[in-house]
Amino acid sequence: MFPINRPRRLRQTTQLRRMVRENTVTTSDLIYPLFAVPGEGIAKEVKSMPGVYQLSVDKIVAEAKEVYDLGIPSIILFGIPDNKDVEATGAWHDCGIVQKAATAVKEAVPELVIIADTCLCEYTSHGHCGYLEVGDLSGRVLNDPTLELLKKTAVSQAKAGADIIAPSGMMDGFVQAIRTGLDEAGFQDTPILSYAAKYASAYYGPFRDAAESPPQFGDRSTYQMDPANSQEALKEVELDIAEGADMLMIKPALAYMDIIWRVKEATNLPVAAYNVSGEYSMVKAAALNGWIDEQKVVMETLTGFKRSGADLILTYHAKDAARWL
What we know:
10 strands, globular
């Protein structure tokens, strides 16, 4: 009349639950995104992302020191330039804002791993991730000419001190182009963290406030993936591995944990999940209204990413999570 198997036996105490826990989030899993802007002494909060700031290079350095002291091993840098143009000059120029920030952080905190987001949308006057046909208002990026811009950007970022290059534009062949460019410039040992499956998601809205990068017309559906597709993600991943990717990223994370799981099962490379701006802002908004317990919800979410197969988590919650841990 009574059950022989009682799973509750292993849930009786906090320590017992710890002993049999299958997945654990640690500070080593976390990567903290930072937004660099020109100037000095600037810390401008992003209205749609409470607790996230656009920072001048001096403030980026201070933030990087705090991140390192919290035990977080890595940051990813995004840049907002003074001027934007069709050539995305601010992305690949040696004096670009990400280049300046990378150099300053590497000098101040040499042990911190610097990831450079290698994309063009923050730097183009139209807000798309590469070259467009003159007069084309559809947002259809010219793939192959854009590869040359990405190659130049990656090399300049590596020269400036970036430890990892993270191309995010979803151009066909972008990993191979960047790998070739890095190797030719003597950066054979610089790894590539490819945004291998980046979806055309509505969850990116607050990020576009932070990075000042909304498209001026059209959308990014001709190069970012259709949210309805999963098999296509495996195809993208397979291509990026063949082209030389060292790590793979899935973006967004929360609505795409099935993709994280499928990619982890299909490959033997480290897999990163990007806990994107919209996911962050929804939690922040609910917490500020007293509707949820922020710490418990954040840690449950991060644990979910680990459970789904993520080895690394890019998250705006990283500093808070490190303190809670």
